[in-house]
Design brief:
- With 418 residues, this protein is α+β, with helices and mostly antiparallel strands.
- The protein folds into three domains: 224 residues, Bira Bifunctional Protein, Domain 2 (BirA Bifunctional Protein, domain 2); 55 residues, no CATH class; 88 residues, Rossmann fold (3-Layer(aba) Sandwich), CATH 3.40.50.
- The protein is 37% helix and 23% strand.
- The strands form three sheets. It has an eight-stranded mixed beta sheet, with helices on both faces.
- The relative contact order is 0.12.
C-alpha cells in the first residue's frame, strides 16, 4: 500500500505532463480572450460553506465529501466543487466592490469526491472553471457556453452539442415543487431510499438520481419549463436567441437539473457522442442567489466546470495526438576530465534560454551519446581534449548527422539557428 496511490487517484508522469500543459495553455488563452483572470482558492474550506452553498440534500454533501476535524476541532472539507470557494473568495476579498462583472477562472484545480472511480472522473480530479459574478443578462450565460463549445471544438472534439434547461427561480420554483411532489406522491414507494429521504425538502433531486428505477419513475414528470415565471421565461428565450445567432447546435432538455442546489434559471451541459454513448464534457449554469446565501450581497452569477481528465480522455478517443515538445535543444557530452568545461557551458547556455543538459551519472562517452539519443535532443555537443584546449565545442545535428566546430562564446547563437 505504501507505494500505491490511493484508489481513485493517479500520478501524472513526466512522460505525459506535456499533454496537461498543452491543454492548460489552450484553456488559459480561451479564458483570457474573454477577459477572465485566474483565481486560486484553497484546496479545503470550512464545511459549512458547502452545506449552505451546494445544499445538504445533494449527493455531493450527503455521500461524496471528504470531511474531517482539524486540530482546532473545526470541520474542514476538501473542495468537492469550485464555485462555492470562488464565491467565498469574492466576498472575503471585496471583489464585488470593483467594476462588475468580476470574471475569474481556475485551472487544474483539484476536486475531491468520494464516489466510484469512473472513466474520466476520479476521486481526485482536476477542473477548469469559469465564474462570472455581477452579470444578469442571458448574454453572459451564452458567452460561457460559446467559450466552452469553441474551446472543445478547436481542440478537435467532434459530435459536440449543447443541452440547456431552465430550472426557474425562487419565485416560480415553489409551484413546480408542488407539481412535482404531487406527481411523485403516487410513485413514492418505488423511489430509492435517498429520493424518499429528500422528497419533502428537495423533490427536484429525484430528477437527477442515478438509480434506474427512479429515472424510470420520473421520465414523465412535469417540466419546469411549463411553470416558469415571466422573468425566467424571458431569460431563457434570450439565451436561445444568443445561441441561435451564434449558430451553436443546442436542444432543450428538461431533465437537466445539475447536482447542486445553488443553480437558478439556466443550467446547461456540453455533450459529445462516443462509441459508448453520450458523455458530458462540461456543465454549468446560473447561480444568482449563491453569494447572498453564503453571507454576501445579492449578486447574479453564472459559471461552468470542465474536467481536464475527461477532456484528455476524449482527445485520446478521437485519436488526437498532442505533439511532445523536445526535452532539450542540446545535450553536452564530454571526454576524459572535461566534465567541468561541459558543466560551465551547460549553465551558460541555460542563462541564454537554451534547454541544455549533460551527463551526471559518470557514463562513458559512448553511453552518453546513447542517452542523448534517448532524450530526443535536437543537437549533441562534444567537448574533448582538443575542444577544451581551443575553447570550442563540436555540435552534431541528430537529424542529418552534420557536425560543426563552434566557439564556446558563439554556441548559443549557433544552437538557435541550427
Amino acid at each position: 500500500m505504501l507505494t500505491q496511490a490511493p484508489r481513485g487517484t493517479r500520478d501524472v508522469l513526466p512522460t505525459e505532463s506535456y499533454r496537461w500543459q498543452y491543454l492548460e495553455e489552450r484553456m488559459r488563452k480561451a479564458a483570457a480572450l474573454a477577459g477572465f483572470r485566474e483565481v486560486r482558492t484553497p484546496v479545503f474550506e470550512h464545511t459549512e460553506l458547502f452545506l449552505r452553498g451546494v445544499g445538504d440534500t445533494t449527493d455531493i454533501v450527503q455521500k461524496e465529501m471528504y470531511t474531517f476535524q482539524d486540530k482546532g476541532e473545526r470541520s474542514i472539507t476538501l473542495k468537492p466543487e469550485g464555485t462555492a470557494g470562488a464565491a467565498r473568495c469574492l466576498i472575503e476579498s471585496g471583489l464585488f466592490a470593483e467594476a462588475l462583472p468580476c470574471k475569474m477562472y481556475y485551472l487544474n484545480a483539484p476536486i475531491f469526491r468520494y464516489e466510484n472511480p469512473q472513466s474520466g472522473r476520479l476521486r481526485e480530479h482536476h477542473q477548469f472553471g469559469l465564474e462570472c459574478f455581477g452579470a444578469k443578462e442571458a448574454t453572459a450565460d451564452a458567452e460561457l457556453i460559446l467559450l466552452a463549445f469553441h474551446l472543445l471544438e478547436d481542440l478537435g472534439i467532434k459530435n459536440l452539442s449543447v443541452e440547456i434547461n431552465s430550472i426557474g427561480c425562487p419565485n416560480c420554483r415553489p409551484a413546480y415543487h408542488k407539481a412535482l411532489k404531487d406527481y411523485l406522491a403516487d410513485r413514492f414507494d418505488g423511489l430509492c431510499d435517498t429520493c424518499r429521504g429528500r422528497f419533502d425538502r428537495n423533490p427536484l433531486r429525484a430528477l437527477d438520481c442515478k438509480e434506474k428505477r427512479c429515472q424510470e419513475l420520473t421520465k414523465d414528470a412535469p417540466s419546469m419549463l411549463d411553470l416558469l415565471c415571466d422573468e425566467c421565461c424571458d431569460h431563457f428565450a434570450r439565451l436561445q436567441e444568443c445561441l441561435a445567432t451564434a449558430g451553436i447546435p443546442y436542444r432543450i432538455n428538461s431533465r437537466i437539473v445539475r447536482g447542486l442546489d445553488y443553480y437558478t434559471k439556466t443550467v446547461f451541459e456540453l455533450v459529445t457522442e462516443t462509441k459508448d454513448g453520450s458523455l458530458t464534457v462540461c456543465g454549468g449554469g446560473r447561480y444568482d442567489n449563491l453569494v447572498e446565501q453564503i453571507g454576501g450581497q445579492a449578486l447574479p452569477a453564472v459559471g461552468f466546470g470542465m474536467g481536464l481528465e475527461r477532456v484528455l480522455m476524449l482527445l485520446d478517443s478521437e485519436g488526437i495526438v498532442i505533439p511532445e515538445p523536445p526535452r532539450y535543444d542540446i545535450f553536452l557530452t564530454y571526454m576524459g576530465e572535461n566534465r567541468q568545461k561541459a558543466f560551465a557551458l551547460v549553465e551558460s547556455l541555460r542563462r541564454e534560454g537554451i534547454r541544455a543538459d549533460m551527463d551526471h551519472c559518470g557514463r562513458s562517452l559512448k553511453a552518453q551519446f546513447k542517452f542523448a539519443n534517448k532524450t530526443g535532443a535536437r543537437l549533441t555537443g562534444v567537448i574533448g581534449d582538443d575542444e577544451a584546449r581551443d575553447g570550442t565545442v563540436k555540435i552534431r545535428n541528430m537529424e542529418n548527422g552534420e557536425e560543426s566546430t563552434v566557439r564556446v562564446q558563439d554556441a548559443a547563437e549557433y544552437i538557435r539557428r541550427a
